[in-house]
Structure formats: C-alpha cells, structure tokens
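U., I forgot to send this yesterday:
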Amino acid sequence: IQIEINKDKEYFEDIVTKGFQAWKINDNLTIKETSRGTKLIRIYSKRLKENFIKLGCPQGKKTNQIDIPDEVFNAPIESIRFFIDTCFCCEGDISPFGSPGNMNYRLNFTCGSVFFTKKLQLLLKKFGIGSNILRIEKKIKNHSTMYRLSLSGYNLRLFYQQIGLTLKRKSKLIEQHLDKKEKQDCMPLERIILKKQKEAKIPHSKLIPLGIYPAIDQHLSRKSVEVFIKLGNFNDINKIFEKDWIDEEAEGIEEESERG
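Result:
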C-alpha cells in the first residue's frame, strides 16, 4: 500500500502512522522524500490488505466505487467524529461565494462515489448538521462524474463546534470566517422559501451555486432571500423586507415550529 503526499505532509504522516498503530499493524513502514518534493509512505502488509478487503474497499480503480462500511455507522460517536474530520481534511476544500463586501464561505467535500457522499451526509446528520449535494457532470471523456457535498452558514458553524478540522491550515480558514461579524441579518422564513421552491419547481442544483441552502432548520440571510426572490421573480414576498412584517411573521413561524 502506497500513499504519495504533496502538501500538509506532517499531518498526513501523523494520521497514517496513528491509523496503523490503531490497527496494530507492526509491518515495516517506509517514509521518504521523493525527487519531486513529495513524501512517499509505503507499507507491505498482508494483514492490512485483508482488513481493507473485509471493510469492502475495492481493488484497482475505485474512484466511483468506494463506500462507507456499516462498521462506521455503528462505531462510537467519537470515532464517527474523527472519521468525518479525516474525510474533510483529506478531500475537503473551503471556497468563497457571494459578492464583494458580502463574502461568505462554504466547506466542500468532493468525491467520485455517490454512495460515499450520501452516506457522509447521513453521518453529518448524527450531529444535526445539514448539507447539500451537487452532481458535477464530467466534461472530459475519461473523467468521472463527481459529487460535491457542501455546508455553509449555520451548518458550517455547527460543524466547527461539533466536529472541527484537525488539519490546522483548513481549520484556520473556517475560524477566520466564523470570527467575522456578519453584516447581514438572518430571516426565519425557511418554510415560505421551501414552499415557493416547491411550487416553482426550482432544483437545488440551481440554488446551491448562488449560495442559497433552504432547509427547515436553517434561517436564510437577507442576501440569500433577495437572490431567491430575483431568481423566481417572487415579487409577492418582497414585503419580508418591511421590519414590522418580519417581526410578526417570525413570531408566527416560531409558534408554528413549537407546535410541530
């Protein structure tokens, strides 16, 4: 088994070494710098290979075949937390969206396996964290269709509090964003937005690139609501920007939520 690393070398060397120790793999581990400036980790272990096969890890090309085994879902919550953390540290990225002066960030996980991506979404729900999945069609013949799981706003903050990232470079980016005071207010209008989305049959794939993540438990920013109104030409809900109406409607929604 061989792993080649071109950045965050210390993190990956530490995480791989700890993984072998946890599985009590005592075979010789070789770690060396290559002429390309990368770090190469290599181990010859029949026992490790057998463990991977038992967990359903496919051999050969596995970009769109990898899956999350049931053992992960049945593991202690702390182990699940560490698994999610490792997924985002290895295959995650943090990207900005929005307009100048009103910039926000989202945490993404991109993978070629729809099974892995959807199961990762289920694991996040164990911590009350909502997310969205965007299908990215392949543009080059020999490339695979990719699936991008994204979370931002309230869910990004919850992710940072409940799970976090042990890779300091990425963790610092999230922390810097969360430390900023948001210039925009939030609106408890998720029920109205979801209803309008359903009536107009607007797919999530159209909303996600615009930074709109409607969910029953997530308040949207004023900017997100404005973009949503323009997208669907929902002039009838422009009154949400009248303060008195907002306060009254928010109270009504909260009461309805409590009754539900």
